[in-house]
Amino acid sequence: MTTFQEKGVRIPEDISIIGFDNIKLSSFMTPPLTTIEQNRMLIGQKAADVLVSLIEDKPIDESYEIRIPTRLIMRNSCMRISD
């Protein structure tokens, strides 16, 4: 974001920027960074479950997929598109 601002690119008027992880710093940036929040605890739990299954030699289907819900946190680094 700093580099864009140094080059005269306006955020969000010229470019929209979105982050991932919703770190605390996101809300203190100028402008505050729109971000995706994910449940790190649940990701760790699911990863541990898979690891335990592998350690116990339980078969895991190649198509096995884990989906963890995310949440979009809108701040001021993305331009809202009007209807």
Strand neighbour order, sheet with most strands: 1-2-3
Largest sheet: 3 strands, mixed
What percent of the residues sit in helical stretches (DSSP H or I)? 25-40%
Structural class: alpha+beta
Radius of gyration: 19 Å
Mean pLDDT across all amino acids: 91
Order of helices and strands: HEEHE
Discrete helix count? 2
Strand content: 5-15%
Number of discrete domains: 1
Task: Output the keywords.
single chain; 83 residues; alpha+beta; three-stranded mixed β-sheet
Describe the structure.
This protein has 83 residues and is of the alpha+beta class. It has one domain. Helix content is 25%, strand content 14%. It is built from 2 helices and 3 strands, in the order αββαβ. Strands 1-2-3 form a 3-stranded mixed sheet, with no helix packed on it. The longest helix is centred in the middle third of the chain and has 16 residues, at 40-55. It is elongated and about 55 Å long. The two termini are 27 Å apart.
Provide a short characterization of the protein structure.
This protein has 83 residues and is of the alpha+beta class.
